[in-house]
What we know:
Elements: H1 5-40, H2 44-63, H3 69-86
Helix pairs in contact: 1-2, 2-3
Amino acid sequence: MANTKSARKEARKTMKLTLHNRGVKTRLKTLNKKAHAALEGDDVGAAQKAVAATVSAHDRAAKTNVIHKNKAHRLKSVFNRALKAKS
């Protein structure tokens, strides 16, 4: 339990940010699954849209330090390579 006023405030901020970041990470996982499913399917246009949405979300998450920038770059590379192989 936090003892000082600033520590209590920091604990509140941490809880709020943790909830926000958890939502962002959940959204990233969902977009990853949708992109993988689209890449497995036959429609190239749908795969391009799904990969674009996933790449954009990873960029935004990396920009706000929800995920590490290298992880975002790695996943972008994986999706773009798979999309190129599909085309």
